[in-house]
UniProtKB/TrEMBL annotation:
Any Pfam family: 7tm_4
Topology of the protein relative to the lipid bilayer: Multi-pass membrane protein
Source organism (scientific name): Sciurus carolinensis
GO MF entries: G protein-coupled receptor activity; olfactory receptor activity
Main location: membrane
Protein's name in the database: Olfactory receptor 52N2
Domain G-protein coupled receptors family 1 profile intervals: 1-140
């Protein structure tokens, strides 16, 4: 529901220059910036939505991990605590992989202006789009013993065929 107004905010803008976005990713502010109109409303609404969603996500994640950690600390088995902490570490890695490039991209569009070189912004946008779906299987797969053992066997087998 929060994203629907972006369409109307972008549609109301006059476009009088090239309609080429210098990115590999077409987001709201990229489209708004190629207009020759005032994009301040677009930037403010986008900032409010991102902060609202980001703050809500961080609040939910913090509450969830507080409850999880409280429960994990009360476990009697050290092995169970270790396994739970290990799983939480994988989750936190996945969260960081998703949010850091996303927030960087979002804030540089609004505040980076001309201080961030375009090629850095494009690289970060691509990382934001490609890193989470690429890294999630790796982050969670390494935690699974069968997958880890299969990868090690595969790598060792490949090493043997090279020699």
């Amino acid at each position: 529901m929060l994203v629907i107004p972006f369409t109307f905010l972008t549609k109301r803008l006059p476009y009088c220059r090239d309609n080429i976005i210098p990115h590999t990713y077409c987001d709201h502010m990229s489209v708004a910036k190629i207009s020759c109109g005032n994009v301040q409303v677009n930037a403010i609404y986008g900032l409010m939505v991102a902060l609202l969603i980001g703050d809500f996500d961080i609040l939910c994640i913090t509450v969830s991990y507080t409850i999880i950690l409280w429960t994990v600390v009360s476990l009697s088995s050290a092995d169970a605590r270790q396994k739970a902490f290990s799983t939480c570490t994988a989750h936190i890695c996945a969260i960081v992989i998703t949010y850091v490039p996303g927030f960087f991209t979002f804030f540089t569009h609004r505040f980076g202006g001309h201080t961030i070189p375009p090629h850095i912004h494009i690289i970060m946008v691509n990382l934001y789009l490609l890193m989470p779906p690429t890294m999630n299987p790796i982050v969670y797969g390494v935690k699974t013993k069968q997958i880890r053992d299969s990868v090690i066997r595969f790598l060792l087998k490949g090493k043997e065929t090279l020699t």
